Amino acid sequence: MRITKIWLIPVVAAIVIITFRYNSHDLLPPNSDEDNENVEKETAKTTSPTFYYKIPIDSLEITKGKVKWGQTLSEILAEFNVSHQNLHLLAKRSKGVYDVRKLKAGTRYSVLHRCDLLKTATHFVFEPSLTEYVIYHLGDSIHAELGIREMEVRERRIAAEIESSLYNAILDQGSSPLLVNRLVDIFAWQIDFFRIAKGDRFKIILEEELINGKVVGIRSINGAYFEHWKRNYYAIPFNTGEKVDYFDEDGNSLRKTFLKAPLNFTRISSRYSLRRFHPVQKRYKAHLGTDYAAPTGTPIRTVGDGVVLEARYKRGNGNYVKIKHNSNYTTQYLHMSKIAKGIRPGKSVKQGQKIGFVGSTGLATGPHLCFRFWKNGQQVDALKVDLPALEGIAESEMETFRMISTATRAKLDALHFQKEKELLAEILGEYKN
Fold this sequence. Notes:
The protein is an alpha+beta fold. Helix content is 23%, strand content 35%.
């Protein structure tokens, strides 16, 4: 037994040495490089600061809100221990960035303040638009800083069939309502958007501007197609040297001398008629205009370039504007709630310019616009006037345009509507079987 115990001593010693070697990393001294590296990594994980608009906020609190009507910056910061002297200094130093007196009602703001009883503000963040933000620094160095959000641009291709309205069809595609107005502007001279029907279809190739994944703008429409009442219309963009305009596949301008309507997205409540029962006067008489029903305050735009002849109030017409476009054409806009600022006799106006707002002044039972149209001195039905087109692509540019037109139409034609996709999938499925 004694001999056995003697032999066990070196064996146990060997096991202890081996164990120590394999576990030596657990016994490194506190100042070893490996241990320091682990400590630094762990510290970075636990002490990484939190930022809000690039401002470290670990020792701050944030109070958010929306600017109320007529509210000033001094009123918002009244409970955050900011002196009148500092507010005056801020107003002076921020003039070149953003005027603190022009806080727009309804826009969002954030007050960053200390976590104490005084809640002293260190920063005020204001968001005047989706693309911009302003940081007012209220600490030791009082100043204002304008920031621009990072914007992403992506191309989208849409093909959709209208079930109820153009607006809903575009929203169903996950796109922005901004696209509705852009599409209306492009096809305003070809398509009667007051007669959009179920089954009308459209295709669009566009570039969207996004901030934080949300569409904030439409950068460009790189091609469009609209099928309206079984008639097909292409819109091919082309840079004429002055601007990018839209043309049909043969190079003819899509723009006419006049817009088809002075309003967007309303309904026609009464058409041009030589015999109509007047809702106020309670008798039959000629109605030599087109009535567009729309909410009070809806912007009214001039359908073409021209000069204002009249802009005033008259008992029957209410507030109205009359515009002479050239020696042949004149238009008139009646029953406005108010005439737009700066619109007066002798003033030149551009096509699409806002000239007033829908109302019910004069002989009117409800808010609407009565739109009247003169051709060669005679009142005519604006919806039936054959309008002349503007000049198309110049002959010297036609070869370049044809190449662009062919490529754009090929991209549009390659887009399929949902029903076409389903039919194609069904045919391919049968072919495989």
